[in-house]
Amino acid sequence: MTNPLPECDRPPLDEMAMGVQFDPLPKFHAVHLGLFWSRIREEYPHAEDQGLLSPATEPLDIQPSTAPAATAVAVTVPPLPRCWFLTNDKTQLIQVQRDRFLRNWRQLQGDERYPRYGHLAQEFKRAWERFQEFIAEQELGPVNVNQCELHYINNIERAAGWSELGELDGVFPLLSNRNPGGFLPAPETLAWQVRYKLPDGRGRLHVEMNPIFRGRDMQLVLALNMTARGVPAAGSIEKITAWFDLAHEWTVRAFAELTGPRAHEFWGMKS
User: Fold this and answer.
1) CA-based torsion, 140, 142, 147, 149: positive or negative
2) 7: enclosing H helix or E strand
3) Helix H segments across the chain?
4) d(CA 33, CA 7)
5) Which of 3, 57, 126, 136 sits 20 to 30 Å CA-CA off 64?
6) Beta 145-156 vs 82-86: how paired, if at all?
7) How, if at all, do strands 100-106 and 145-156 pair?
């Protein structure tokens, strides 16, 4: 794909995360979470304990009609907590557990400006390289990456082109002609999910839409969650970066194709 990527002046993005999953590190213990935090604490002065993320793989050899969102993988090492290390304003954070490393940007007040993918990708690369250096210095074993994941969480407000759940075709053209018979009233609730294979067997893009009441203001919004998962060609930072670039391109183009002109105008989308 060589055409410029669509870009929004006012994207509805609420959170974005880039992450890698790797084979569990048996020698990685709770003390190492603290040691790693000591290295990054100047940039990430806050820490929180969180529940573990279950390990998962994207089953590309299963047909889409039967494939689950991801397949759980059993682990035999004792569990450790997942730790968040947060910036001072808590809009950016690093997540670490024995088999997972992620870096997030998120909105908290609702007026934070999205730093854009290019900047966040560089920050992920820098953080990931620091983590790998730490693992090597502590002799905790090789980091064998088995999956990458890219998450975009969009909150679509009514002003983007919808007022009731029976009128979502103003935002999502694929929902047009939803009631050709005229008998049924507007739905009380509505949700949908689709998934697409990335080229060359490099993963899948999962798209889900659900109405939710947004936590910070309890406003009803359409949560459009877009998650790409897959395996890079190799575990080097160059191959991981190439996978993220592909996943980003597919996510952005899919977002533009799944949403409609009225919403694009509201978001200031340019292509």
Assistant:
1) positive
2) strand 7-8
3) 30-40, 117-137, 237-258, 261-267
4) 37
5) 3
6) unpaired
7) unpaired
- Tell me the per-residue pLDDT of 132-162, one tens digit each, with 9 for 90 and over: 999 999 999 999 999 999 999 999 999 999 9
Query: Which token pair is 19?
Result: 């992450």
**Quick count: other Cβ atoms within 10 Å of Cβ 55?**
21
On the CB side of 136, CA atoms within 13 Å amount to 7
Q: What 3-state class would DSSP assign to 219?
A: coil
- Whole-angstrom distance, CA of residue 177 vs CA of residue 167: 10
Kind of pairing between the strands at 220-230 and 204-213: antiparallel
pLDDT tens figures, 60-97: 776 655 555 555 444 455 578 899 999 999 999 999 99
Q: Please, which residues bridge with residue 156 across strands?
A: 222
Dihedrals φ, ψ of 123, to 5°?
-65, -40
